[in-house]
Amino acid sequence: MTQPDFDAVAFPDSPELVIGLVAPIGTPIKYFTAVLKTELEKRDYDPVDVKLNRYAEILAEGGKVTSGDSYERYDRLMTLGNDMRKLTSRNDILALFAAMEISGERPKEEPRHLAATAFVVRQCITSRRGFGQDAHSSL
Fold it and tell me: Would residue 6 count as lying in a domain?
């Protein structure tokens, strides 16, 4: 098997980035995201939010989860995400939505990457029980 010729590939000076944030409920994700965006901007990157919860909300009545306190809202979003995975028989359905959104942001002509752009995929949440079998799936 031949090895790819990486010298023939034109790598951009500031490659496109995709950063996924996963955190338990109660983590100050908004603070962390603000710090991350500030640091990316200092390095001349354009941070773009990709929020997975809006895809889970497709199944919600009225297309939005608005009622209840924060815990109830997150619990409802995790349940909707789990329902979506069951309906589609795809554990990666929310990741596919994120990939579709990112692809839609890219130029239609070559080169199709967005140099100096950082997609920040967020609202990947899990219960405080962690990532074990008993935990809600991440959103």
Answer: no
pTM for the predicted model, two decimal places: 0.74
Its domain, for residue 71, covers: 14-105+114-126
Burial 46-81 (b: 16+ CB within 10 A, else e): ebbebbbbebbbeebeeeebeeeeeeeebbbbbbbb
Tokens for 122, please give them. 């967020």
- Quickly tell me which residue has 């890219």 as its tokens: 106
Radius of gyration of the chain (CA): 18
CA distance 19 to 54: 18
Tracing tokens 């919860």 back to the chain, one arrives at 53
Half-sphere exposure for 33 (CA within 13 Å, toward CB): 19
Q: How many domains does the chain have?
A: 1
Within a domain: residue 3? no
Q: For residues 65 and 110, what is the distance between their CA atoms, to the nearest angstrom?
A: 39
pLDDT, one tens digit per residue, over 54-96 is 887 877 777 777 767 777 888 888 888 888 889 899 988 888 9
Highest mean pLDDT among 9-18, 31-40, 60-69, 122-131: 31-40
